[in-house]
Every structure is written in structure tokens, then in C-alpha cells.
Structure to design on (348 residues):
């Protein structure tokens, strides 16, 4: 059994650790979970993702309860075709999906994930629209297909999202070569606000502010401004720069007292910073892709070292016994995986 000290990072240690354990069918023990956070241990979205991953691969689990700082996870073969995730708070839907996205690498069939509760937009987590426009879009280029249907969006504090995601990794292949961007084709984006904010035109104002910052690139800008019935008022915007060979994203969350124009500006600024660095993946996708690079090989350029990226690099070293290569390339970091990768176990 692989023992992992969770104090090397935050909740991503659990999410990525459990996902890799399921993909590789490797038992793990994670202790000191979120030790250095203000409220250590499992929170609602961590527990939801853990339980769903356990259901997916029929794992034996100990320590699966709120506040737990130690979990033992013994996975078996991925056989389930559908799992349900229940999040009792406004915890991130996207982050609850992370361990399942990795676990499904070992599935020989599509897996439908039904999520009840949680937030599609929230603090300190990429929104679900980021996964749709960036994460899922990049992995689809390598054969990992994802379909998303949102019945209800969710914002803090009540959450209440309803989402169905189908993950199909049967044709996923590597290496994930992402060292060149290619031509910039267009910008895409979704500016979302609850119906509570329709009168103030919050969705349109977020989109207009973002559009104003992106017009200088001389490519089409496709921004959708829309409203949704939600249990709590809220807003957010997600942007994506679509290149011939990759996608980079940026996002921002609306808050009480924060002008809609500032939200749109913040998302565009985050995207522009990573565009100007010359990186081939943005700051969020750089850490999210690490497990896939480790399993299937590949390389990419990250805009900079972040806490999550550093944590995921450490996790990969623990799982595989070897390090991914990290080399400074001008303003970026080139991260390179083993050419053959470490393939997940499949079949019997």
C-alpha cells in the first residue's frame, strides 16, 4: 500500500491520489489530509468525490467522513456504468469530478455521472464551464470524450446544482504532445448570471468587458451571455483561447459589491497573462494534465510553477518512483513525461 502525506498539498492530494489509485488499481493510504488548511480534513466536495470514486471501482474505503484526515482506499476493477454524486454544500462540482475523470481511464465503457448539489461556480476552484471549454476540449483531442448537461447551475452559499456528465476514455491515447500552440483561431466564452441579476444586465456587462480586452487579437470572439434559475444569486465568466493545437482558459467569479465589468476584466486579464507567457497550457490546466502526462506520456509548457502543479508533480513521483522533467524555457516551464508513460490497468 502506498502511503501519502497529505500535508504536501491541499485537497488535490486526495482528488488526484484517489483518481490515480483507481486508474492503476493501487491501494493507497492518505494521511494529514489538508493538514495546513484552516479547516483540516475532508470537506463535502472531497467526500462526495471520494465516495463516488469508491462506488465506481467498488473500492474498500476507511475514513470516508467529514473532517477525516486519513483515508484508506483499496480499489478494484471499474465496472459501474453510472454513479451518483451528492454534494450537500456549494462545494465545487468540477473538483468533485476530478478523481472520477482519472478513474474512468480504467473503464472499458462510458460512465455516466449524475451530480446533485454543489456549485458550478465557486471560489478557489475552476468553474464547470472551464472544464467544458478547456479541460474536456483538450483531452478530447486525444480521444477522451466528455458530454455535459447542466439542468441547474449552482452558486454559493446554497449550491443546488444538477449536472450529468458522461466520460468515455476508451479511445484515449498518448503521448499528449502540447509543445506548440499553432494559429489562434478564436476566443470562446460563457458569461453566466442568476436570474436575480438579469435586470442589472450582469451577464451582458461581464461579457462586454471581456470582449473589449480581447478585440486586439484580430480573431472572432464568441461570447454567450446567459441567465439561469439558481438557489443563490451569483455570476461568473469563463473564457477560452482556441488555438489549432491547444486551448488556454481564464475565469472569474462575481461577488457582492464587485462590478460586473471588473469580473469580465479579471477573467480576460488572467487569460492574457498566460497567453503572453508563451505557455501552451494555462495555469490551471498545467496542473490538471499532470496525471494524464504521467500515465500516457507527453509534454507541454506551463506559464509558471503553482502550488497545485508542484503538488501533482510530487504525487506522480510517489506513484511512479520517477520524476517528470521540468526545464526552464524562456518565460515558461517545459514539463516532460516518460515517453511510454505508466498505462492504467484495464480489463480483468
Amino acid at each position: 500500500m502506498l502511503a501519502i502525506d497529505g500535508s504536501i498539498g491541499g485537497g488535490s492530494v486526495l482528488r488526484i491520489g484517489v483518481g490515480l489509485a483507481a486508474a492503476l488499481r493501487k491501494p493507497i493510504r492518505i494521511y494529514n489530509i489538508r493538514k495546513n488548511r484552516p479547516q483540516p480534513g475532508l470537506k463535502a466536495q472531497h467526500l462526495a468525490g471520494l465516495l463516488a470514486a469508491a462506488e465506481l471501482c467498488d473500492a474498500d474505503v476507511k475514513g470516508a467522513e467529514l473532517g477525516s484526515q486519513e483515508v484508506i482506499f483499496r480499489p478494484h476493477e471499474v465496472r459501474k456504468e453510472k454513479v451518483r454524486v451528492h454534494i450537500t454544500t456549494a462545494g465545487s462540482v468540477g473538483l468533485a469530478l476530478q478523481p472520477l475523470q482519472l478513474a474512468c481511464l480504467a473503464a472499458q465503457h462510458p460512465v455516466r455521472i449524475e451530480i446533485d448539489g454543489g456549485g458550478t461556480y465557486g471560489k478557489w476552484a475552476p468553474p464547470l464551464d472551464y472544464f467544458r471549454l478547456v479541460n474536456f476540449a483538450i483531452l478530447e483531442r486525444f480521444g477522451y470524450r466528455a458530454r455535459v448537461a447542466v439542468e441547474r447551475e449552482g452558486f454559493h452559499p446554497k449550491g443546488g446544482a444538477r449536472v450529468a456528465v458522461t466520460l468515455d476514455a476508451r479511445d484515449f491515447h498518448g503521448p499528449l504532445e502540447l509543445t506548440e500552440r499553432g494559429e489562434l483561431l478564436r476566443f470562446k466564452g460563457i458569461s453566466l448570471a442568476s436570474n436575480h441579476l438579469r435586470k442589472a444586465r450582469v451577464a451582458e456587462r461581464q461579457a462586454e468587458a471581456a470582449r473589449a480586452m480581447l478585440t486586439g487579437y484580430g480573431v472572432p470572439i464568441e461570447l454567450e451571455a446567459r441567465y439561469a434559475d439558481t438557489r443563490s444569486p451569483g455570476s461568473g465568466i469563463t473564457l477560452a483561447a482556441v488555438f489549432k493545437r491547444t486551448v488556454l482558459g481564464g475565469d472569474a467569479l462575481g461577488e457582492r459589491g464587485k462590478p460586473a465589468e471588473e469580473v469580465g476584466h479579471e477573467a480576460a486579464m488572467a487569460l492574457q497573462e498566460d497567453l503572453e507567457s508563451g505557455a501552451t497550457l494555462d495555469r490551471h490546466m498545467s496542473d490538471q494534465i499532470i496525471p494524464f502526462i504521467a500515465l500516457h506520456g507527453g509534454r507541454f509548457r506551463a506559464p509558471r510553477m503553482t502550488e497545485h502543479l508542484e503538488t501533482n508533480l510530487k504525487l506522480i513521483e510517489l506513484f511512479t518512483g520517477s520524476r517528470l522533467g521540468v526545464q526552464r524555457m524562456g518565460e515558461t516551464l517545459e514539463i516532460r513525461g516518460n515517453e511510454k508513460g505508466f498505462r492504467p490497468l484495464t480489463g480483468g
